[in-house]
Amino acid sequence: MALAQRPATPGQQQRAADVVREEVGVSSLESLNMLRPNELIREIKRLYTLAEKAGGSSIPAMLIIGPPGVGKSTAVREAAMQIASESGKVFVDLLDTSQRKALIEALEKGEPPDKYFVFLDLRLTEVEPSDLIGIPRVTVVGGREVVDYAPLEWAYILSRVPGILFLDEITNVRRNDVLAAAYKLMLDKAAGFTRFNRRTLVIAAGNPPTEYGLARPLPEPIINRSMVIYAEPPKIEEWIRWMADQISTLPEGVKEELMRTLTITSTFLTIYPTLFNNPNIPRDPNVMENMPTPRSWSFFIFTTPYSKLEELAKKGASAVAQYLSSFVGREAASRFATLFKVKIDPLEKLLQNPSTVDSYNLEQMLALAVAIADNIAYRATAARTPEEKIETTYQALKQLEPLLTKIALRRGQTGAATIAGTELIQYVHTVLGNMLGAPYQQAVTKIAIETRGREPPWLTAIRAGKMVAARKPVSEEL
Predict the structure, then answer these.
(1) pLDDT, tens digit, for every residue of 265-311?
(2) CA-to-CA distance for 48 and 200, rounded, in angstroms?
(3) Distance of alpha carbon 455 from alpha carbon 56, whole angstroms
């Protein structure tokens, strides 16, 4: 007789699933549908095209989960604008009162609804349930009083005009009645008793509950009825191109100033890529300190003409750092201020002519050492499997070997500037060992085996010196 087995608990099921993923070489994170902003825009457009062809009945809502500041809201809005432009429709932002009123007047005059494409961004942390379902009212049906909901203006528009309804910050909502109303929008594509146009796409976005204190898990029924996508931050080069496009639309004068700010910021982020998006950067828990994300860097650039930075620089690097810390926190701000004072070339340019490093002073060499460590760490952490991380780290070390050698061969100077190349290499070694762990060690070991008997100077420096257990941040060294 077969023995009855107790059903596995959700935790056991998850552990079993993780074991299977490990066996086939797929991590839990890798198995998610992870998209960068440009990819997310394309996916939204694809889903909307399907909704248009299928009449919307079988198209689920989209749920976008990702860290703060990586471009979720911007990508959804950009997708809506592109859909309108590519289909020859007039884009209408329903949060713009003048655009909304003009659309209603056009519809009342008999303009075809398909001429327009609407977009509505609702921040769910700012609304009441009645803002999502309508106001109860008493009407008479068959001689009896009954209660229904007075249609909301935006819901009335979405019932007639195709578009995208965006429900932002869904995981940060604390009120269950607001969440319940939001679920109806996603599942039924209706606000109260007002059903949306069949070509309306509903998209919600939030933060991962396990990583951010305010975020809360969503019920399984809403997840199971949605297409769930995990948003990744954009690549630095994608963000730079996007920022340049945005700035190019601004008036003359303003455009030139902000483009110069973008240029110095781009140089900084190319040198220190891990400071582009780092919500986990160490911060003082007693201070409401900001963090570097694509959004916070964008805010900095849009509000800071280059002349403002020059004005601050006259007061000293600390003035630049204090100002920038308002946007991206103190660690990123202090390094930016250092770069603004200490000029070093991008690594790509230095690799073309490594002898440029020969003229670098101590401050520049320190900044270069940090830039190399940052660049390798950024490239390695982008890899999704341990094998890819080892190979990426190995290739980065090989590519940057000319610069590592230049640093390793630097001799210490007398007086205050006593840091020799061996110590700088040890700094790089310590940082990468702490950030990457075993994959970095294995990559170094691979190079050591390949170059046995003819090892490069930077590897000799690692062997010769003691590991630097704890060095001050380079911003303090400078």
Answers:
(1) 887 887 788 899 987 787 777 778 899 999 999 999 999 999 999 89
(2) 8
(3) 63
Residue 82, pLDDT above cutoff 90:
yes
pLDDT, residue 3, reads 34
Specify whether 222 is located in the same domain as 243: no
Of 5-14, 241-250, 279-288, 453-462, where does mean pLDDT reach its minimum?
A: 5-14
pLDDT at 325: 95
HSE value, Cβ hemisphere, 13 Å, CA-based, for 451? 16
Report CA torsion sign: 229, 234, 238, 241. Answer: positive
Packing angle between helix 37-54 and helix 236-248, nearest 10 degrees? 70
pTM over cut 0.70: no
Q: How many domains does the chain have?
A: 3
What is residue 121's DSSP assignment? E
Angle at 222 between CA 216 and CA 226, to 5 degrees: 115
Residues 465 and 384 in one domain: yes
In the predicted structure, residue 11 carries a pLDDT above the cut 90: no
Tokens of 45: 């457009």
For residue 84, the Cα-to-chain-centroid distance in whole angstroms is 25
Does position 44 have pLDDT exceeding 80, yes or no? Answer: yes
Taking alpha carbons only, the member of 122, 128, 146 closest to residue 136 is 146
Which residue range forms the structural domain that includes residue 332?
A: 236-341
Tokens representing 445 are 């070991």
Between these two residues, 137 and 454, which has the higher pLDDT value?
454
45 and 189 together in one domain: yes
Q: Are strands 163-168 and 144-150 parallel, antiparallel or unpaired?
A: unpaired
Q: Give the closest residue to 247 by CA, choosing from 265, 273, 272, 232.
A: 265
